[in-house]
From TrEMBL, chains A, B:
Lineage: Bacteria, Bacillati, Bacillota, Bacilli, Bacillales
Lineage top rank: taxon: Bacteria
Domain FAD-binding PCMH-type: 36-215
Essential cofactor(s): FAD
Gene3D superfamilies: 3.30.465.10, 3.30.70.2740, Vanillyl-alcohol Oxidase, Chain A, domain 4
Name this protein carries in UniProt: Glycolate oxidase
Keywords (A to Z) from UniProt: FAD, Flavoprotein, Oxidoreductase
Organism field: Tumebacillus permanentifrigoris
Length: 479, 479
C-alpha cells in the first residue's frame, strides 16, 4: 500500500486512528485461532459511519482488502488479514444508543462489548440471551458477523434470532439500512439476517438493533454425573422428548472434567466419565418443577449423582466451571484447536463416540465438551503446532470429524464460522451449486472482492501467511 | 408460448398436470388480492423435485416467466402471473415427510396446508406457532414465500423464525439444500432465511424443515372493551412494559366490531369504540397469573369491561370473531383492500389515529384491526373497484398510510409481502442503495429474470393485465 493511500486513510480517520508501524500491524495480524497469522498493511479505527464509508470508498477504488474486526476473538481465522490490506477495527463504535423498553429493543454500535450489553439491559429487567464464551471481551459487531451462539441456544436461539435491524456500509461506500424495530417486516429480501453470520465478507455493520426479552425472574442450576457418556446424551434426548426445553444443557467429557478440576478446583468427581450442567430459567415455580423433572430423568437414565445448586452463587460457580473449560484445556499443551462440529441433537451420542474413535485412530488428545442441547460439540485437540507431523494428523482427524458430522445430518460449524479454517470444507455442507450461489451473492455485495478476501470460500492459491506461525499466547476465553 | 414448449412441459409432468385451456388458465390468473389479474400461458403441477427442476430448465432456456404458488391466498398480487408464462403449482407436493420428536422438527413439501401441519404436530404434543388468517387453505410453501405472520407473532415470531432447512430449485434447474435440523449452523450465508419471504423471485422451494416447540399445556383468552382506541393501544404498551409477553394481542376498532357483530352475532357491545382480544399460553398457573395481571392493566387503563373466557370453547369463539374480521368486512362492499402497514408497537396509537385522519381526508371507509402486540395494523378499505374515482382516492390514501408508517419507524408491509401491490413503495423503506442491492441479490439467483418477474421491484413498463379487473368473489380468509 503506497504512502498516498495511507495519507488518504489518515485524512479520513485522523492520524491517531491510522496505524502502520510493524508493532501495531503485528497486533492485528492474528485472532484467537491458532495456526493463522498474516500482516496487514494498515489498521484504521473509524469513529463514525461516515468515516467507515470513506475508508471503504478508498479501499474499493484501489482494490485493497478490508478485514473488519472487533476484539478478534474469532476461532476460524476469520479476522486474520491473510491477503494484507486494511484492518478496520470497529471498537470505537461502542455506544449503546438506546434501550427501548416499550418496543423491547436495544440499538448500539458494533464495538459494544457483549457483556456490557447484557449488563445494561439486565439493569432494567430485560434480557439479551446470546452468551458466547468470549462475551466479556467480544464485541456485538463480531457476534453479528459470526452469528455467535453460546450456552443458551437450546431455549433462546443464537445471535441471528435477535438482530432486527442493521445499518451497514457496502464496499462501494454506500450506507444502507435494513429492518428496524418492527416485530413484523417483510419489505424485500431479509438483508439483515443475511448479514448476520456473513463474516465480514459482504459489508461493514455500523449499527445494530437487537430484540430483547423480559429477564426471567428465576434461574436454577444443576449438575448430573455419569459413568458413561451415552447415558448423559440419552438424558438430553429424554428431557427434550419430555417437552422440557432448559435454558442450558452443557456437557463435559471425562478428559475435560479432569483438566477443569485441575484448573478450577471445584470438586468434580474424577471417577465419573461425563457430566451435564443444566440450567433452567423462568418463573420460580416453573423452574422448580422443571428442574425436579429433569433431575428425575437424569436419575432414571443412570446418573450416579445429581446435585442442585442451593444458591445462585453456587449455580454461577458451576456455570463458571463450564466456561473455564477452554482456558483450562489451553494450559495443557502449547496449541489448543477448538472445533465446533454440530449435529441434530438426537445424534449427539453417536457423534461423541465417533470423535473418540477418530482421536484414537490418529493418536491424538481430543477433549470434548459443548452445548449438548444444541448438538453443538467442541472437540478440542491439545497439540503443539511446532510438531508438524502431529499437526498433520490433527488436520486429518478434523477432516474426518467434519465428514462424520455431515453424515449424521450435521454441519461443519455450529457457531464459530467458516473463516479460513473451514473454507475447504464448506462444499461438504452446501454442495457445488450452493457454493456457486454463495459466491454470486458475495459478488452482489462486493463485486471487486475486497471484503475479507479468502474467507468462507477457499482460495489457497492466494493465501499469504507473512508471519511464521507461533504459539498462541493471548487470552483464551471463547468457546 | 409455442406448442413445442408446451409439449416439453407435458412430457415432464404428464398430460394430466399441464393445463392450458382458457378456463384452467383463468383459475390461475388471480390470487386473493383485488385489482390484479393476468392470464398465464400454461399451468403445471409437478409431482416431485425432479419435475420442478426440469420445468425450470425449460423456462430458463426459453426465458419464460415462472410464477410458483400454492393456494393463492396472497394479498399483495404476488402470485398473479402479470407477465404471463408458467404458473407452477406446488400443491401436489403436500407430503408431511416426518415429525421428528427428538430434534423437534417437521419436514414436509411446500404444498402442505398450514392447518394440517398444526394438526399433525399438535397430535404429538408439539407446536408450530405461525397462524396466518388463511391457515385453513394456505400452503406452507406460500407461508415460506411470504414469511407469513399471524396472531401469535408477539410471543412466537413469524414463519422465518421457524424455518431451519430448505431444499429449493434454482432457475437453472440446480437443486440446492441449505440448513437442516441443526440448532446451530453457520456454514456460509444463511440462504434458508433469505429464501423465506423472497416471494418466489429467487427459487422454487420444494422441501421445508421447520422447528417445533412443545405445545403449551394451557391457554386462556380474554377481551377488553374501551371507549377510545388510545386507551386500548396504551394497554398494549403497559402490558409489554410490565414484562408480560402474551401469545396474542389483537385489536378491532369500532367499525370492524360493528361489521363482525353483524356477521357473527356474538354479542359485541356496539357502544364501545375498540376492543382487545388477548390470549396467553403456558403452564396453567402462569397463564392464570398473567391473565390476572393483564386484566388489572386493562382496567387501570380505562377498559369499560374485561371478560375472561370461562371455557376453551368460549375462548375459541372470541378468537374466531377476530378471524372472521376480514370475511365480515368483505361482505360490506364489492371490493375489500386489506393493507398491513406496521410500526414499532409503541407507535400503534399514533398510527391508528393517522389512518383515521387519512380516511376522513379522502372520504373513505377504512376499518382497522390487526395484531396490536406486533404494531401490525390491517387498515381495510371497503370500496368498489368499478368506481375508478374512489379507487384513485384509495390509492392516494394508502400511499399516505405507507408514508406515515415509514415516518413512525415502521414498514410498508408486516406480513403480506411486497408483490405487485407495494412494489412502488419498497424504496421508501430500503432506499435507492438498498433497492439496487436487492436487485443484485435477485440477479445472483436468477440472472435471466424468469422468477416471478415484476414482483417486489416495480416494473410498470412491462405490466401486463390481460383480463379486466373484476369483483373478487372467492373465499376471503387471510388476514
Amino acid at each position: 500500500m503506497n504512502q498516498e493511500i495511507k495519507s488518504q486513510l489518515q485524512s479520513i480517520v485522523g492520524d491517531r486512528w491510522m496505524m502502520d508501524s510493524p508493532n501495531e500491524l503485528y497486533v492485528y495480524s492474528y485472532d484467537a485461532t491458532p495456526l493463522y497469522q498474516a500482516m496487514p498493511d494498515a489498521v484504521v479505527m473509524p469513529g463514525n459511519v461516515e468515516e467507515v464509508a470513506a475508508v471503504l470508498k478508498v479501499a474499493n477504488q484501489y482494490r485493497i482488502p478490508i478485514v473488519s474486526r472487533g476484539s478478534g476473538t474469532n476461532l476460524s481465522g476469520g479476522t486474520v488479514p491473510t491477503e494484507g490490506g486494511i484492518v478496520l477495527v470497529t471498537n470505537r463504535l461502542h455506544t449503546l444508543h438506546e434501550v427501548d423498553q416499550e418496543n423491547l429493543t436495544a440499538t448500539f454500535g458494533p464495538g459494544l462489548i457483549t457483556a456490557d450489553l447484557h449488563r445494561e439491559v439486565e439493569a432494567v429487567g430485560l434480557f439479551y440471551p446470546p452468551d458466547p464464551g468470549s462475551m466479556r471481551i467480544s464485541t456485538m459487531g463480531g457476534n453479528v458477523a459470526e452469528c455467535a451462539g453460546g450456552m443458551r441456544g437450546l431455549k433462546y436461539g443464537v445471535t441471528k434470532d435477535y438482530i432486527m435491524g442493521i445499518e451497514a456500509v457496502l464496499p462501494s461506500g454506500e450506507i444502507v439500512r435494513f429492518g428496524g424495530k418492527n416485530a413484523k417486516d417483510v419489505a424485500g429480501y431479509d438483508v439483515t439476517k443475511l448479514l448476520v453470520g456473513s463474516e465480514g465478507t459482504l459489508a461493514v455493520v455500523t449499527e445494530i438493533t437487537a430484540k430483547l426479552l423480559p429477564l426471567p425472574p428465576a434461574k436454577q442450576t444443576m449438575v448430573a454425573y455419569y459413568q458413561d457418556l451415552t447415558s448423559a446424551a440419552r438424558t438430553v434426548q429424554r428431557v427434550i422428548a419430555a417437552k422440557i426445553i432448559p435454558a442450558t444443557m452443557e456437557f463435559l467429557d471425562h478428559a475435560t472434567m479432569a483438566v477443569v478440576e485441575d484448573f478450577a478446583r471445584i470438586g468434580l468427581p474424577l471417577d465419573m466419565k461425563a457430566m451435564l450442567i443444566i440450567e433452567q430459567d423462568g418463573t420460580a415455580l416453573q423452574v422448580e418443577q422443571d428442574i425436579a423433572r429433569i433431575a428425575e430423568i437424569c436419575r432414571s437414565e443412570g446418573a450416579t449423582e445429581v446435585r442442585l445448586a442451593q444458591t445462585a452463587d453456587e449455580g454461577a460457580k458451576l456455570m463458571a466451571a463450564r466456561r473455564a473449560a477452554l482456558s483450562a484445556l489451553a494450559r495443557v499443551k502449547p496449541t489448543t484447536i477448538l472445533e465446533d462440529a454440530t449435529v441434530p441433537r438426537a445424534n449427539l451420542a453417536t457423534m461423541v463416540e465417533q470423535v473418540d474413535v477418530i482421536a484414537r485412530r490418529y493418536d491424538l488428545q481430543i477433549c470434548t465438551f459443548g452445548h449438548a442441547g444444541d448438538g453443538n460439540l467442541h472437540p478440542t485437540c491439545l497439540t503443539d503446532e511446532r510438531d508438524r507431523e502431529e499437526i498433520h494428523r490433527v488436520e486429518q482427524a478434523f477432516e474426518e470429524i467434519f465428514h462424520a458430522a455431515i453424515k449424521l445430518g450435521g454441519t461443519i460449524t455450529g457457531e464459530h464460522g467458516v473463516g479460513m479454517a473451514k473454507a475447504g470444507f464448506l462444499d461438504l455442507k452446501v454442495g457445488p451449486s450452493g457454493m456457486e450461489l454463495m459466491k454470486r451473492i458475495k459478488e452482489a455485495f462486493d463485486p471487486h472482492g475486497i471484503m475479507n478476501p479468502g474467507k468462507i470460500f477457499a482460495k489457497s492459491d492466494r493465501r499469504r501467511v507473512v508471519v511464521k506461525t507461533h504459539a498462541c499466547t493471548h487470552e483464551h476465553n471463547h468457546a
